[in-house]
Amino acid sequence: MTDATPLKDPSLSDRVYADLKRRLMLGAVRPGQKLSMRKLAAEFGTSPMPVREALKRLASEQALESEAAKAFHVPDLSPKRAADLFELRALLEGAAARAALPRLTPARLAKLTLINDRLSAHLTTQDAPAYMADNHLFHFTIYRRADNPDMVFMIEQLWMQTGPSLRLGLERSTDTAPQWNSEHTPLLAALRAGDADAAARAMQEDIAWGAHFYRRAAGLTGP
User: Taking the domains of the chain in order of start, what are their residue ranges?
Assistant: First the structure.
């Protein structure tokens, strides 16, 4: 079956997976959104097979949910589940910041400062897509210096699960939007000072803000 050979090319499935993974992390797909295998195949210019394999892979990583072999959708997290995931993120990402600090050169710190300046501008203009993209770049510029691929992989899985809810929360909280970036300033100060403990704490606080946000939404904490 020579015509089936391209369908088994792992690079096709990997390409679809990588693209959908980024969409999830950046919240470019919405909670509860259904993903059409036919539409995705047309978009990527592939047969349905590599799309199906990518969707199944994402479902196995809990980034998508599937009710049947051909039906996939983005999870619509309850506020409690979202808060729980952000708390787990805070633990891992604080550890990643600590581990990355020795490899954050002055040039990389300067890059982080520029990205953070852009983030503040995105919040001012309420440009959620640009904010999500630069926030991802800011954080993973740090995490990929941790010299721990397994930790980065685990963080990516959590970002896939929380990205759609984070984007939705950002869009629904424009009155408090500046708070979404408030912990980056002490984080950058700690990184410049070479203070690993302070950097880990600041990163945890940055991520834990999401947990507080969703716990308030669930009525699980006071105002």
Answer: 2-73, 79-217
